[in-house]
Design brief:
Elements (H helix, E strand, L loop, with lengths): L2 E6 L5 E7 L9 H12 L7 H4 L4 E5 L1 E2 L2 E2 L4 E6 L18 H8 L4 H8 L4 H17 L3 E9 L7 H13 L6 E8 L15 H10 L4 E6 L2 H4 L4 H6 L7 E2 L2 E2 L4 E7 L9 E4 L6 E4 L9 H24 L4 H20 L2
Antiparallel strand pairs: 1-2, 2-6, 3-6, 4-5, 7-8, 8-12, 9-12, 10-11, 13-14
Helix pairs in contact: 1-5, 1-10, 3-4, 5-10, 7-10
The chain binds flavin mononucleotide (FMN).
């Protein structure tokens, strides 16, 4: 079973992750992990913190001579030294602050922020880099693109940069929608024997585990609701690569809606939970949008989930064991799919 856990706080020394159940013999150059972390860190719309972070990391277990060993992989990413956040009894709207303060019985929102912060997603990217490498060596390719930014339903680089600059100047932030595509997945991953085996439910959980993601669809998604059955049947790609929770050999297509970043330079109204007096929260260092970075994080989160499904289907403790099984299966199922 492939599983992972993360630990660490936004302003702690490091954020850490452990990936357990990953096969041996997978070459994972450190430069690949660094490049993926950089895609997340330097995605468009990020704020000033990202210039401070270097995302320098250490692999302390699970690799030898550039190859995975089959032992749990441990990754630690250094945070830039910035000191602990100051005590604050003013929850920031749109964040975990208020709900977390109620849940853990604290008047200090800073304690909640430390772990609820999206800083943690850097570790998921580092761990997901291993899964992406495994997929890549098996001919499975991941890509993502932002399909809407704020009200712009067809953003170009130029229009996106202009929208981000305008939002920043107004102290505002933007949400958006990204699309994730996976090509080359073998048919037959996931399952229909239980609701929890359905790959759509597993991928939805992986996407909703990313901060700010508020909507998820597979293939035609919400558009399918407005389609007649006859029209839907004419366009099998609307299934988005999943039927009955199982991959069907077509590209997997997911879309996620990302809410606008809640931390506003323009400020937002709140209440001081110590005095119950009105308070204003101003965030000068927030990202202007999370949608581009979230797309990168989603590629890695999906790669981890799909690597788990792949290992369940094909088994094996090393790449040398898994690869011929996948190739043989592709040949066998490919013969059927080619005749449809
Ligand atoms: C990559 C990424 C970066 C983010 N950066 C910020 C930020 O700079 N400021 C902020 O207020 N929220 C930011 N967020 C959003 C918050 O983390 C998120 O809204 C908050 O944790 C509450 O979680 P929820 O939106 O899932 O309910 C970011 C989210 C992601 C995915």
């Amino acid at each position: 079973m492939l599983r992972y856990l993360t630990a660490g706080e936004s302003h702690g020394e490091t954020i850490t992750g452990i990936l357990d159940g990953f096969p041996a013999g997978v070459p994972v150059p450190l430069a690949c992990i660094a490049a993926q972390l950089e895609r997340r860190r330097l995605a468009p719309g990020r704020g000033p913190r990202q210039a401070r972070e270097t995302d320098s990391f250490q692999i302390t277990s699970g690799m030898s001579g550039g190859l995975t060993t089959g032992a749990p992989i441990a990754v630690a990413i250094a945070n830039s030294p910035s000191g602990k956040q100051a005590f604050s009894s003013v929850p920031r709207p749109g964040h975990a602050d208020l709900a977390g303060m109620l849940k853990y019985g604290t008047l200090n929102a800073a304690v909640i922020r430390e772990r609820a912060s999206a800083r943690e997603t850097a570790v998921r990217v580092a761990l997901g880099s291993f899964a992406l490498r495994l997929h890549g060596l098996l001919g499975i390719r991941f890509s993502s693109r932002v399909v809407s930014l704020g009200a712009d339903a067809a953003p170009t680089v130029k229009s996106a940069m202009a929208a981000l600059a305008a939002a920043r100047a107004a102290g505002d932030t933007l949400g958006g929608v990204f699309e994730l595509r996976v090509d080359g997945l073998p048919a037959g991953l996931g399952g229909c024997s239980q609701g929890t085996a359905r790959l759509g439910s597993r991928l939805a959980a992986a996407m909703f585990a990313i901060n700010s993601i508020k909507g998820f669809e597979v293939g035609g998604g919400f558009r399918l609701a407005a389609c007649g059955g006859i029209d839907a049947a004419r366009e099998p790609q609307l299934s988005g690569g999943l039927d009955g929770g199982i991959t069907n050999g077509s590209p997997l297509l997911l879309r996620c809606a990302v809410k606008p970043v809640p931390g506003l330079a323009a400020g937002a109204d709140s209440v001081n939970l110590k005095t119950f007096k009105k308070a204003r929260v101003v965030s000068k260092t927030s990202d202007t949008t999370a949608v581009f970075a979230a797309a990168v994080i989603a590629e890695h989160a999906a790669a981890l989930e799909l690597a788990g499904a792949l290992l369940e289907k094909f088994g094996g403790d090393s790449l040398a064991e898994i690869k011929p099984r996948v190739l043989e299966w592709r040949k066998r199922t490919g013969k059927v799919l080619a005749r449809l």
